[in-house]
Write a structure and sequence with these properties.
The chain is built from three helices and six strands. With about 110 residues, the chain is of the alpha/beta class. It has a six-stranded mixed sheet with strand order 1-2-3-4-6-5. The mean pLDDT is about 85.
């Protein structure tokens, strides 16, 4: 709500020409949620991983796809890590191309 209000105000004042797309805003919200409690990084190698959650000596690569259709290409980098997680609009817990998949809202509920 707050972000939408600020974006609309910036557009009205002609201070913002391009509105961030919904998936970028969702990704930013997920990162903001986790950066409060633990170190959060990202991986930029052959592909990109949106978030890497670090807890002690363990890390969990997380990809946020706010889309109902996910291409295998989108998961190439994520498949390199056995404990990686895909967060998306899916309604159930499962696997997509060998990667654990969770509904994004459910993942955010877990402390």
């Amino acid at each position: 709500f707050i972000q939408n209000t600020i974006v609309q105000w910036l557009q009205r004042e002609r201070m913002l020409s391009k509105v961030p797309d919904e998936s970028a805003r969702v990704e930013a919200c997920v990162a903001a949620q986790f950066v409060r409690n633990q170190p959060v990084y990202y991986i930029k190698a052959d592909g990109e991983i949106d978030l890497v959650l670090v807890s002690g000596k363990n890390f969990t690569p997380v990809e946020v796809k706010w889309s109902k259709s996910i291409r295998p290409n989108d998961l190439a980098q994520l498949r390199k890590y056995p404990n990686s997680v895909l967060l998306s609009k899916v309604s159930g817990i499962g696997k997509v191309d060998g990667v654990s998949s969770l509904p994004l809202p459910l993942f955010l509920l877990v402390p």
